[in-house]
Amino acid sequence: MTTQNLLVELFVEELPPKALKKLGESFAGVLADQLKAQGLTSGDTVVTPFASPRRLAAHISHVWLKAEDKAVQQKLMPVAVGLDAAGHPTPALLKKLAALGADVSDPAALAASLKRAPDGKAEALFYDSLVTGATLDTGLQKALDETIAKLPIPKVMSYQLETDCELPGWSSVNFVRPAHSLVALHGSTVVPVKALGLSAGHTTQGHRFEAAVSPVVIADADAYADTLRRDGAVIASFAERRAEIARQLAAAAERVGGGCRPIEDEGLLDEVTALVERPNVLVCEFEPQFLDVPQECLILTMKANQKYFPLLDAAGKLTNRFLVVSNINPQDASAVIGGNERVVRPRLADAKFFFDQDRKKTLESRVDGLTKVVYHNKLGTQGERVERVRAIARGIAGLLAQSGQQPGGDVLAQSADTAARLAKTDLLTDMVGEFPELQGIMGGYYARHDGLSEDIAFAIEDHYKPRFAGDELPRSQAGVVVALADKLETLVGMFGIGNLPTGDKDPFALRRHALGLIRMLIEKDLPLDLAPLVAGAVPAFGNRISDPSGALTDFIYDRLAGALREQGYSAQEVDAVLALRPQRLGQVARLLAAVRAFAALPESPALAAANKRIGNILKKADEVDAHVNPQLLKEPAEQQLHAAMARFVPEANALFDAGDYTASLQTLAALHSAVDAFFDDVMVNADEMDLRLNRQGLLKSLHQAMNRVADLSRLA
Fold it and tell me: pTM for the full model?
């Protein structure tokens, strides 16, 4: 028996575009997995998903018409329960075997055929049988039912069936959209399966307007994509259609010239791919006067409302040209182009109106309005929130000034305070009301219009940054301070009222805020200690919250650990460094590099193991003073260790203080032989109390010296 390729297609009304990609992947993936679970696919099986606005399909290669029969051994019950004293089957055993399909007409012969084997302390009976492999028609039916049930449908609709149901016009099914036809071909043979009130056949529908024939007849499974392209004017593959749109966008931009390029937006490209079956990219334009509006507004309205691709020039500035991905390909596209240009004009006019109206009021005049906007029922209004952000920002600016590494502390504090006071005012503007995605960005434009400095405008614009993984950081120092304050206010406030993220639920994006905080502290190498930074934000809330400093700090270190592991550091390396809770996160990369270099040394495993041993000894000894009396060092090995420490520890400490963490750890590696000799020859817990305390003090000193960079015991 040979395999053949299988094609299954469900033809439906227009599917939700933002969900189409996942729906297509799920349909093909679950269907193939279900067939594999039943033994109907081979090791060479390749799954090809198809998804267009009106269809979900899967091509699965090397599918068997019938799965192989399998020998199965099943445990029945203990021998004492299944057989009586004479060795005859009990009624319980016969009932169990009958349920498994065994012939119980000859109980004695059946009992003799059963196997006995130890099962824990008792002996059990086992039944060997041959399970008949599933046939494709029954297996595919089961797989199809399971696939439809597991589709990640964003919202289910209910509709009534007219045929092939118990009560035509009354019987209903639930699915993402009404389904119209089902194709199931094994090679060229229709597999007799049903789904959603449909019986499988070999016909489907092509493009609504441009299909050459209706219906489109699929001759065999392998002809599906080519037949749809030729007769149905449909590119069935989501990936292929997406690539074709990207190719046409690039070609159209090149035709426009001037170094123009379409905006890069993977989400928009996916959504447009889900809206068209036969893409045709056209070049359109709008009146140049609309370019006086901030380009972010125009780009957003064209993307969000119309699914257009704006064109940027070589300098990244918006042009008055945009690209439309049409679903039709007429000989004369002027009507399509003109229609899209007419549609976009009112959208751009609205954006210009909002921009003009917003500029009639200053940001300063909107500050009082924030007191009427509720932020959170336990944390007050946006106005109260702004005051907290201001207080936290002033505190951060003070810490930076105290560090001595950030000159102009008073100027920074003033700029940060002004920016923090105005940062949320654009929430009250018409433009942000229409496009919430523009908050912060519009604040920057309106700040410049109000005559504020570029530094403050940048700070207002950037205080939400980084908004997502890979986003750029705030450009100015004041922007960094306000962004830190804003994220700290959110984190401290939410943790302070017990509003913590759970599982995959994080409605206030606290994980993202924590990662943004971490990125700024690390990438800007700010001279700020984490604990005082978090603690300094708490007083701004007064008695509205409980102090969350401990839990929040743990949360931040957990986020940092996850981010470092994603960057390629091992769990041991990360654990060793973060076990000491380094306060300056900007130093973490150098600490990790030092640990990695130390771990590569031949002395590393023994020293890490010794460090772990020392830690265990000190834990059992309770409070240990790191003081060592040389007069009490009786054994040669402890004298040698003390001498080696006197030689190498000061050097290692000096290197650590200078910031050369790698060299510091490598210097300590020279203690390897002395440490080994100590543990070989010296009894730490000596009977004489003075000797014991002195040796514990020696180990305490060694432990402190070895664990300045990281907890080396975590490498053991």
Answer: 0.79
